[in-house]
Task: inverse folding
């Protein structure tokens, strides 16, 4: 009888151990599956590369030499594309001075180029240059109430034509202008319309070529009396710039790129 109880006890112990072993391993398949899922997720994450954001492309679109009979058409095209530009004005065409107010009211920036647009007059000496500039400031203020310290030198700050009148005058004017609180802006892209004989298709191609490989651009075009081809090419040019993803901004203050030319740079715009 005692022997029977020992056998029964042994059987119970074996059974109990078997139950414990089963309980210890019953969750193992689940844990394995969970581990595999985690590993797969980690592998997926490790293989996923961050999406690279396209670098921002900023264009400061500027027009020299207006207002003229071409300015209003240019304003209409800019409005169509919801683009704001900066106009470096002259005093060459009094019959179109009234357009300065329209430029301002449409949200564009007005800045100073030259009143006379005559190299010999303004580059004879610093006094002559600033006399011309103040005359243009007064014109702008009378027509629009706008006061600005934003200027663009005729021919750019590195032009050599001015040396024919007075050698080294541009270096003098750059220093004097800065001392007087003016901020001058050159450019690093152009459509070549300083030559009014170039056809619209050439202006279009020049503009596209000029911005290639750049992410920040100061584009110079012209809305002077002789720039009808600029007006003709503008719609197609802006359409392509928009397609390429350019963001358009106006010149506002000194806390932005000035694109100052170096003396040895070749420039064609004026």
Result:
């Amino acid at each position: 009888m005692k022997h029977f109880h020992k056998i029964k006890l042994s059987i119970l112990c074996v059974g109990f151990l078997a139950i414990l072993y089963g309980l210890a391993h019953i969750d193992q398949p689940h844990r394995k599956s969970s581990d595999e899922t985690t590993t797969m997720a980690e592998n997926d994450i490790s293989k996923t590369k961050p999406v690279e954001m396209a670098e921002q492309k900023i264009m400061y679109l500027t027009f020299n030499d207006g207002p003229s009979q071409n300015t209003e058409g240019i304003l209409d095209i800019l409005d169509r594309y919801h683009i704001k530009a900066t106009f470096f004005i002259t005093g060459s065409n009094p019959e179109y001075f009234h357009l300065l107010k329209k430029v301002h009211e449409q949200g564009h920036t007005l800045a100073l180029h030259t009143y006379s647009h005559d190299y010999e007059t303004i580059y004879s000496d610093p006094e002559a240059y600033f006399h011309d500039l103040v005359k243009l400031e007064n014109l702008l203020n009378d027509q629009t109430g706008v006061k600005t310290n934003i200027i663009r030198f005729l021919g750019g700050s590195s032009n050599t034509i001015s040396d024919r009148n007075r050698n080294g005058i541009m270096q003098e004017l750059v220093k004097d202008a800065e001392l007087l609180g003016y901020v001058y802006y050159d450019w690093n892209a152009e459509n070549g319309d300083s030559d009014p004989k170039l056809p619209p298709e050439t202006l279009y191609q020049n503009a596209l070529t000029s911005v290639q490989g750049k992410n920040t651009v100061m584009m110079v075009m012209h809305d002077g009396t002789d720039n009808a081809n600029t007006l003709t090419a503008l719609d197609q040019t802006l359409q392509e710039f928009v397609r390429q993803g350019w963001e358009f901004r106006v010149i506002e203050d000194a806390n932005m790129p000035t694109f100052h030319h170096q003396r040895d740079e070749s420039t064609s715009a004026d």
User: Anything to note?
Assistant: Residues 1-53 have pLDDT under 50 and may be disordered. The CA atoms of residues 13 and 205 lie 94 Å apart. The chain is about 45% helix and 15% strand.
